[in-house]
Amino acid sequence: MPFASALSNRPNLAAAIDETSREIAASLGGAAPDLAFVFASHHYATRFPELAAQLKQALGAGLLLGCTGETVIGGERECEDGPALSVWCAVLPGATLAPFELSFEQTPDGLLCSGLPEDLAEHRLDTRAVFLLGEPFTSQPQTVIDLVTDELPGVPLLGGMASGGGPGVNRLFFNDRLLEHGAIGVVLRGGPRVTSIVSQGCRPIGTPFVVTKADRNIIFELGGITPLQRLQQIYPELPKRDQELVERGVHLGVVMNEYQDSFQRGDFLIVNVHGADRTSGALATGGLMRVGQTVQFHIRDAETADEDLRHLLDLHRNVESNSRGALLFSCNGRGSRMFPDPNHDALAVQQCLGPMPLAGFFAQGELGPVGAKNYIHGFTASVALFEDA
Q1: pLDDT tens digit string along 257-300?
Q2: Taking the domains of the chain in order of start, what are their residue ranges?
């Protein structure tokens, strides 16, 4: 197999590195991996300065990328408590890796992101994917999304923001170095195909409406009346369970393709509703809204999130039957905070598409495409799947 993963829960970092690197070497038949990802819990914080260098040497990896995670994923497990080190490796014949380290600086002309490879557009046709890991308090992923969109239209940008700590606590691992800020990543050119699944875990309620009055992220009118009035119209017609979910909080789905005759779950980009003004009836959303967009209210619960993820995985299996490895970036609001049983997202991927080498973490913001465009999400499970070339 050209892919391998290993998970260790040993509290001693040296022992965890030894355990995972030995398992990786056995799975790869002793071949040196071209690319390694590592995700580490904060239980190893005092040893973070040496983690990357020791693991890279033990693996013999050409490129190592990684970050800290509130929850660390490996195989079928999501380790929400206790020490956890998850390692994922790939041997990538025919592939070229272009690693990068990003810094972000506020200038009079706006936010400046520097460090991306300068030849992105030149290799657009053979670029499989871009992977990005960021420190959430010192990076601006939307800036990277915009740059990748301009230079590599249609190429998936996948990854997530490090989690588990406040400002100054999260860490990134880049080859043999420990970073406290910015973002890191790699452009994968050639080699295996990379496909993606982004499960937003919501379902629509009511009917679609056209935005008729908006300012930036505030919606004042849907079809000529306020969003709160629209919600009050929908509410009495909903089943009791859906009414309870509305009372907990609604989301808004923005239609991705306005030219469709009808819209179903999966046709929307989900944005959060941050608040409502009962006087004006306006809604504040988590995205920029414009007049003419079609939107629909959505709700989310564990049952819907489970159904959505498994539905997308099954659709993928019907089209692609040869997934060889996976990276999983789930929201830190999922896991036991959302589902009644542990290990939900990792188990779902393995049950629907596996068994296969899998690693990842619970992120403070997940990256992945919806339709043909890349976004940073919340509450999603974003899966990068490596297929045969």
Answers
A1: 888 878 877 789 999 899 999 999 999 998 899 999 999 999 98
A2: 3-199+306-387, 203-299
